[in-house]
Amino acid sequence: MQTTIISSKAKIGNNVKIGDFCIIEDNVVIGDNTIIKNYVELREGTIIGENCYIDSRISSSGDCKIGNNVTIRYDSIIARGVIIGDNTYISPKMMSNNLNTNMNQVGGAEIGANVFIGTSCVLQHGIKIGDNTVLGSLSFVNKDVPENEIWFGNPAKFYKINEINNISNEIHLPQ
User: Fold this and answer.
1) How far is CA 37 from CA 40, 65, 127, in A?
2) Edge-first strand listing for the sheet containing 71-72
3) CA 162/CA 148 separation, integer angstroms
4) Rounded to 5 degrees, what angle do the CA atoms 68, 51, 164 make?
5) What tens digit of pLDDT does each residue of 51-108 get?
6) Is 106 helix (H, G, I), strand (E, B) or coil?
7) Is the pLDDT of residue 174 over 70?
């Protein structure tokens, strides 16, 4: 019995580990040394860089780009068109959106490099999150966040300047 479905049109790098009950559609690219855990769905056109950790129950709507050394934790949703920069850490249950209030696709969030996104954070469509940014848990981010800042709340608001230049160096990947 086959538990994981991988399209023949997907490109899987070297030393990639893929768990059980995953669906990897056409034109998905997964970089070298990436770990994909169980129950992950990567729709057409999803690109994942090298040395990433994609935890269980992650869903990608497709046509999104995930940089190198990115960690996406349990039960997060990566909407169509989302871009995630290198060295970014996404805590469990983050949700992104690419539809406006009229249900038109307007593009997913653009998340910079070295960003930390807290648990159950929601990112509205078309926003830009600057490099070295921290978004607090349970935040609803509905506008652009400049680089090197810490934001949290519903809606998310500026809290203070982030004095750590590369937050992801402080976080270690799960084994």
Assistant:
1) 7, 18, 28
2) 17-18, 35-36, 53-54, 71-72, 89-90, 116-117, 134-135, 149-153, 156-161
3) 5
4) 60
5) 999 999 999 999 999 999 999 999 999 999 999 999 999 999 999 988 666 777 777 8
6) coil
7) no
Q: What is the pTM of this model?
A: 0.91
Segment 135-169, tens digit of pLDDT: 999 999 999 999 999 999 999 999 988 876 655 55
Residue 28 is encoded by which pair of tokens? 């998905």
Length of the chain: 175
Pairing of strands 140-141, 156-161: unpaired
DSSP classification of residue 167: G
Residue 91: name the closest of 69, 77, 108, 74 by CA.
74
Which two tokens mark 106? 């307007």
The string of DSSP codes covering 50-72 is SS-EE-TT-EE-SS-EE-TT-EE
